[in-house]
Each structure stands twice: as C-alpha cells, then as structure tokens.
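note to self: dont lose this again. the chain is below, predicted strucutre after it. 140 aa total, dont forget to put it in the shared folder this time
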Amino acid sequence: MSAQNDLPFEHEVAETILVAHAALEKAAQAYQETTEKQAACNAVIPSLVDLAVKTAAIESDERDAFAQALTDPLKTLQLFKFALEQRWSQSNVPGREVDSTGRAPQEKKASTYGRGNPFVGSGAGLAAANAAFDDAMGIN
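---
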C-alpha cells in the first residue's frame, strides 16, 4: 500500500480518538458536577435532621433512618410529597383554623411573670403602684 492510501485511515483513527477524548471529558465534567451537588446536599442533611427533630416532625430515634432516606433523591421527594399532603389535609378540615404553617394557632396566654411592671418579663418598674391598684380592685 502506498502512503497516500493510508492517509484517510489514519485520519479516521485520529478523528475517532479526538471524539472519544471529548466524550470522556464531558463524562468527567458531568461526574464532577454530580459529585459536587451530592456533597452540597449531604452537607445540608444534618441540619435538616436536627430541624425535623426540633419541630417534632420525627422522633429522635428516627434520626439515622431519616438522614439515610434524605441521601436518596427519590425518597426525599416522597417524604416532601407526604409532608405537603399532611399539611394540606390538616389545613382543609372544615371549621379548623390554621396558621400559615398549616398548624392550629397556639392559644396566647398572658404571663403572670413580672406582674409589677407593664413590660412583661421585667422585674422592676411600677410594682408599688400596681400592688396598690391590685389591692384597690381586690385582685390579690
């Protein structure tokens, strides 16, 4: 074979190598992006688990199972769907008043701490005047 006939084959081999190289670079880039996203998600999981325990969404003995479920995107979406369905069902009970979080509003009660001051929680202030008013009203 002459060198002239070998040129197109060598050219095709070189092109194939370049295309394969470009494909491998794209795959490596996609893998790196996926790995970075997973690492960012994993970094959020502990604080989300803490919040779930704090808000009584889960019991403290469910921490590990909940954290493990959050590492799986499908399970995470299923948990999110379940939470939204629960919130929706709780907020759509006829005659039930709910706040913006979907929970029943908490009853507000006046504090008896700091009775001697119009500013709740403060121990100083108008204690003598308030005591005199209470005595006059027969509240004591």
